[in-house]
């Protein structure tokens, strides 16, 4: 995962006593198979031993290449070659996609098994690169290895998927989700519309683990609920987490594609309550070796790894066979805004020169670029805008954005403002106004209706104005206009 703190969200009530969880562990640390209803019997048992074997190979690659598998270095290239070789041998159609980064050329590995419905795609992915200082075995060898073994197990099952099944192993996640964004941006709108679901697995074997379920994409709530039901059936307590777009699912979520995923924890500290229900050590990080040289094969919890691999297998096998009801995907997967996360700089946007930036003084919501409007502490006005057309056939349309506001102003007077405006046919409508009042310096997602503009060409504008003293920064990221 990219290197910023994850924020845990709502706490789910445990559905079984901790004693039941402890009783399910074998002497070797694996999860004993609980009694399962008939519907769960089809879920595969992904071999944790095979997952560990892949991790041993990734560790050997890092050891032989300066201790890491970092983008642009020989260890990452060797990781790509290893994963592609395994997928080729399993019979997948594989593609290596190259793209440029600040650390040199990097690569995504894409593996596809065409289903009986080629126009309906289920995708699962995780990043393959490590940070520069270590081998990255939990972050994210664990997710990559479990995905790889799930792909091999599916191919060995002899099943033909109903939906086209696709696996993505992303490069340069640690540089700001560069690989997954490059892949998603390369797809024509018609291909994005085919993706029914994207599942993301980034760190599933943390040594002091928690069991977290992504809860940051309302479009993926049905799969989120499927994940929590799987944990419930195993008697494993879980918590929701809002990872705030800080892993590769963000590249797909920004286009309106449903996303979901699991996470076993990074640099966050395990609380006493979490240790009581999950075991492990309170007051210590879920992964004390996060982004460090000690993130080796010794930095894994076999039980967490086994559970994560089995859950990945269950989701992939189920959704490969799922009947989504029609071979014609709904049009809601297409973001009408171009360069909606600003990762290509000011491309497709007009307005004031300068607000679209990768300046690190204010964080992006995901990736490294964002629109930073205001923050000058003097009388100024700045704006960015983009013109789009909302299809007349749309039954609904909306604008969403992630907004972070920090200010030196105090009190309840709105000295500085950000207006979200739409201009159509010469008339300008202000959809919302945000100000220095109540600023918390934390990202929050905003959603605004565009139903009144269906069938019209519109210009979406973000307009910031500041008064003569004290700064207020309005940071906008991961915008989307979705019409369905």
UniProtKB/TrEMBL annotation:
Per its UniProt entry, which superkingdom is the organism in?
Bacteria
* Signal peptide range in chain numbering: 1-32
Ranges for domain Peptidase M28: 108-315
Cited InterPro entries: M28_fam (IPR045175), M28_SGAP-like (IPR041756), Peptidase_M28 (IPR007484)
A Gene Ontology molecular-function term?
metal ion binding
Species:
Knoellia koreensis
Q: What is this protein called?
A: M20/M25/M40 family metallo-hydrolase
Q: Does the record bear Protease in its keywords?
A: yes
| Keywords noted in UniProt | Hydrolase, Metal-binding, Protease, Signal, Zinc
Q: Does the keyword Glycoprotein apply?
A: no
Q: Return the similarity comment.
A: Belongs to the peptidase M28 family. M28A subfamily.
Among the GO biological process terms of this entry, one is: proteolysis
